[in-house]
Design brief:
Length: about 425
């Protein structure tokens, strides 16, 4: 591989940058291990929001593409923008919505071609380009010209410049559009290395994409996150409960928005939270997404206030969470967790915290089953409060046993991921 003065140039790409702390945990885990295996590496982030990536992870960063915050345009770098890009910004920021829409139509193709050309030049000379975990093989958020197209164009640019292209511990599905499936199949075929975060994702790639290779399955990268568990816990006669609601079908953000479904979920969470308060449990609210899940916590607390539910002083901990470190610090305070978001479940398990999962996706079901916790996994779509109380009560009575079982499985996950890191960085 090429290098300059022995320094390796590595790109890490993912759809991160807008506050999803699960994605941030994945990237942080990858960064920790790149720095461990290749101490002299120059690492660059490729994300939806380069400004956030630079601030959050301390990386020089580049936009992932047309789906990024400012498209291909590098925000703040006016010296490197073309006349077309500057003109496009004027249209996009115009007060008249018709002119803004017209600008998007007129400049979409020229801006894309300019961005691709610049990105290709930038990628030249890299020693490795890593698609780092997450649900990369899906079109749920934006259709074929978001995730699938983005993965394809970077795989093509890497192939053109002979940059090894690694797709590491990714999830797959849904891919509803035929074009999405074509884009992802092509991108996978161009990769130097591929691995999937669970057996279901590998089956999906084989059965839906028709892409069948002898690729390995390794756990989600967040299982390898090195964490600080020194946060002081409060004293409590009962287990301290972590409560992590999410924006399920919230019309403000969810792709398939439905206010009735969201409000039904919120009301059931309020019923359960009221029961926890009445039973004297201390509650730690946490958010797996820094911005949008905060809306849900606020909605839930407002609903409790409207119902006249009053907690005792110190019974509720609800602190701002904007970083992975802050999320971990809140989870450490708990004894067991009720979580809906995938990495809210996963990071709790990473800390050996027993979880009752309210699952919105089969990836959560698979994780809970694989850790031996399948009996504590309920469907978010149709769970009822009484069975949730029953599962919670059963888990609270068996915390030590559940935690030990989870810890053994987490040790296995971490050993497997150590094996993968050693393999992909072996020739660096």
């Amino acid at each position: 591989m090429s290098s300059v003065n022995g320094t390796k140039k590595i790109g890490i790409m993912g759809p991160f940058g807008f506050g999803n702390l699960g994605d941030a945990a994945i990237q942080e885990a990858m960064l920790q291990h790149v720095r461990e295996y290749i101490p002299n590496a120059q690492i660059y982030g490729f994300s939806l929001n380069p400004e956030d990536t630079k601030e959050r992870h301390g990386l020089p960063s580049y936009p992932i593409g047309r789906m990024a915050k400012d498209g291909w345009r590098v925000s703040g770098d006016e010296t490197n923008t073309t006349f077309v890009e500057r003109l496009m910004v004027q249209f996009r920021t115009h007060n008249n919505p018709i002119i803004r829409k017209l600008g998007r139509v007129i400049f979409a193709l020229p801006a894309e071609l300019i961005g691709l050309s610049r990105a290709s030049r930038f990628l030249k000379g890299f020693d490795m380009f890593i698609v780092s975990g997450g649900g990369q093989l899906d079109d749920y958020w934006g259709g074929p010209f978001h995730h699938p197209y983005t993965l394809l164009v970077w795989s093509l640019m890497a192939r053109r410049h002979k940059v090894p292209f690694y797709i590491v511990s990714v999830g797959a599905g849904p891919l509803n559009a035929r074009l999405s499936r074509l884009f992802d199949k092509w991108a996978l075929s161009l990769a130097t290395y591929r691995s999937y975060r669970d057996a279901d994702s590998k089956r999906f790639v084989k059965n839906v994409l028709g892409f069948d290779r002898n690729d390995p399955v390794y756990p989600d990268l967040a299982h390898s996150l090195k964490v600080n568990t020194e946060t002081a816990k409060q004293e409590s006669d009962k287990p301290i409960v972590g409560l992590g609601p999410m924006t399920y079908f919230d019309p403000r953000i969810w792709p398939e928005s439905d206010s009735a479904i969201y409000n039904n979920y919120l009301n059931k969470m309020a019923d359960f939270t009221t029961w926890l308060i009445d039973e004297g449990y201390k509650i730690v609210f946490f958010t797996g997404e820094a911005v949008h899940d905060r809306w849900t916590v606020d909605d839930l607390r407002q609903l409790l206030d409207e119902r006249g539910v009053a907690a005792n002083e110190g019974q509720i901990i609800d602190e701002p969470i904007e970083t992975v470190e802050q999320l971990i610090a809140q989870l450490v305070k708990t004894d067991l967790v009720i979580a809906s978001r995938f990495h809210g479940v996963l990071l709790s398990l990473r800390l050996h915290k027993p979880v009752v999962a309210l699952s919105y996706h089969k990836k959560i079901n698979e994780l809970m089953n694989d850790t031996g916790q399948g009996e504590y996994c309920l469907s978010i779509a149709d769970f009822e409060v009484a069975p949730l109380k029953e599962r919670f009560t059963h888990l609270a009575a068996n915390l030590a046993e559940a935690s030990a079982q989870i810890g053994q499985r987490e040790d296995t996950y971490q050993a497997a991921l150590d094996e993968q890191y050693a393999h992909i960085f072996a020739n660096m």
